[in-house]
């Protein structure tokens, strides 16, 4: 009986010790999650829709977990207030113009709060201060937008397929141009005729220049062109001389000022 009682006491002691260890471990985990063992300060923000955010979700600053969501309360039908507990050591990096947004851990992970960086000139946040928030984009809205885009792409694809079918069938101007060899031959003949006409025109102009009756006309045109070029060259030379005189004048004035400064 004594041996049985002794074994029972040992088992009971082990059970109690295990329970206390488990309780202590749970307290440690909860305390760490709630930042009970570190100095903290509180900030608040408001959203129209928290989009699945829950108490205990992480808060990140520059990609680092700096706190947790302490409480979420509904103020009215259009405002939800979120209380944030953050480590005291990061308060110096959070400015009053920082913006709070709702993000997620990966594509399908838990929700979290993201505090964006503020401007360098803004003051540091104070205990209990409310930060500006940015409303999250709902997954349903994204899916609806993607659905509209997919529908438009389907319509465009169908129209392109119809156009290609008409082209391959020889329908329409482009289809006839591609499928009908007669049109292509006519275009080739037209280009050849234009080229031939251009050559003939050049030859006629050259012959006209040597014609006795038109020779004087072309000489006058050539003389007028040469006179125009000569006038332009003369104007350029005149402008260059004027610029040189202006530069010499400015240089002389600068030298005179320099001499006056040296005499002073």
Mean pLDDT: 76
How much helix, percentage-wise, in residues? 55-70%
Number of separate helices: 5
Number of E strands: 7
**What is the strand content?**
15-25%
Major sheet: size, sense and barrel closure? 7 strands, mixed, barrel
Instruction: Report the end-to-end length measured between terminal Cα atoms.
Output: 122 Å
Topology as H/E string? HEEEEEEEHHHH
Low-confidence stretches: none
| Helical/strand content category | alpha/beta
How big is the Rg? 44 Å
Strand order of the largest sheet: 1-4-3-2-6-5-7
- Shape assignment: flat
General description of the model:
With 264 residues, the protein is of the alpha/beta class. Among the domains are: 39-136; 142-172. 58% of the residues lie in helices and 19% in strands. A hairpin with a 2-residue loop joins β3 and β4 (79-87).
